[in-house]
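Repro:
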Amino acid sequence: MNQDVRKPFSFSVRSFSVLALSVALGIGLSTSASADEADAKRLLKAMSDYLAGQQALSFSYDATLEVVTPEDQILGLASSGKVVVKRPDKIHATRAGGFADVAMSFDGKTLTILGKNLNAYTQVEIPGSIDHLIDVMREKYDRPLPAADLLLSNSYAMLMEGVEDIKDLGSGVIGGVECDSLAFRSKDVDWQIWIAQGEKPYPCRYVITSKSVPNGPAYSIQFSNWKDGKAVKASGFEFRNTSKASKVELEDLKGTADLPEHFTKGASK
């Protein structure tokens, strides 16, 4: 094997969260554009209300996180997993990729992160709601949950923060499901979302593209196997150490973050 493959290198990448955008207002819209914008807002609000209204929901996902090397090469890191939510304060999420196999469980008080490939786990006390957990994991630990923006109890307000341009792109098809395709712009990111048409307006794909990093790296997540209500097997929120994994401190749980250990972060431009 070429030893250079594992050589550490730096790259520029930002946290692809729509939650921290600065406020900006779009102006000069035509009558037609205003109608499209209003419809797009209505569709996004319907999705937000639907997700927030589900006491239990679950989905599978495939995600790709892009990073840019100093040589301007875009690299995509792919992972898959499953998320189970029981509002207001329980969540179980898995993420498997080429360098990590992770399970996270939160019972309303304690977050457990299990590195399955390491047979080691850590626990952090974060009592509170799923909303609080999402904020703490993103801001304090730099470990955003899969689809975190969409799991908030008021995702519409957070998603629309700082949005300055909105487009309704009509219909699209994701995984055989006909969706409404919407595009949004802010100062720092462009983002697009495809929402299933019909009585259950769940997200089918969500793509966020950075504008502050050259070459516009993106984070994309595609959803499948959506379930809600009684169809959800709401379990696994309390950690059971069935594999007799070793307990370690969070900083010692190597290889469980979104990026491989041999990647080093550079500054965004």
